[in-house]
């Protein structure tokens, strides 16, 4: 049994139209993905993962400063050293939007001449300075008045 020529032609046209439509959908999906990738490039021009950690400036982010202050307080409470430590330099700071904000902060620490039980405002570095590096991961949820030190890595 042979199909009439008009049915074959209309079947081929419908098939061809579906193929073109599927190719168009794929093309537009690719374009949208590429646009999102380009739009996700930071101010430095470096691409980053949407929802991933982003570099931040602690001088401009009060919540990040609070997270670092909290991490330093916890660090000083948890160490067995009788002297307080303080930040001498911020090496890297990033934030990530989660259920709240997660901060990844790497700092150069210095041991001060202030004893833990007699801390005053005039704490300076020991002579000679004892420097070490720490990385803190802090989770902040300000609307719940909640902040947690998730991880502390200090040699």
UniProtKB/TrEMBL annotation:
Could you name the domain of life of the organism this protein comes from?
Eukaryota
Q: Which PROSITE patterns match?
A: CYSTATIN (PS00287)
The record's SUPFAM superfamilies line, in alphabetical order, gives: Cystatin/monellin
SMART domains given in the database record: CY
GO MF entry, a single one: cysteine-type endopeptidase inhibitor activity
Q: Name one Pfam family in it.
A: Cystatin
Q: What keywords appear on the UniProt entry?
A: Disulfide bond
Identify the residues that the record assigns to the Cystatin domain, covering every copy.
Answer: 48-155
Give an example GO cellular component term for this record: vesicle
Family, according to the entry, reads as follows: Belongs to the cystatin family.
**Record-linked PANTHER family:** CYSTATIN (PTHR46186), CYSTATIN C (AMYLOID ANGIOPATHY AND CEREBRAL HEMORRHAGE)-RELATED (PTHR46186:SF12)
Full protein name: Cystatin C (amyloid angiopathy and cerebral hemorrhage)
Please name the source species.
Neogobius melanostomus
What does UniProt list as this organism's lineage? Eukaryota, Metazoa, Chordata, Craniata, Vertebrata
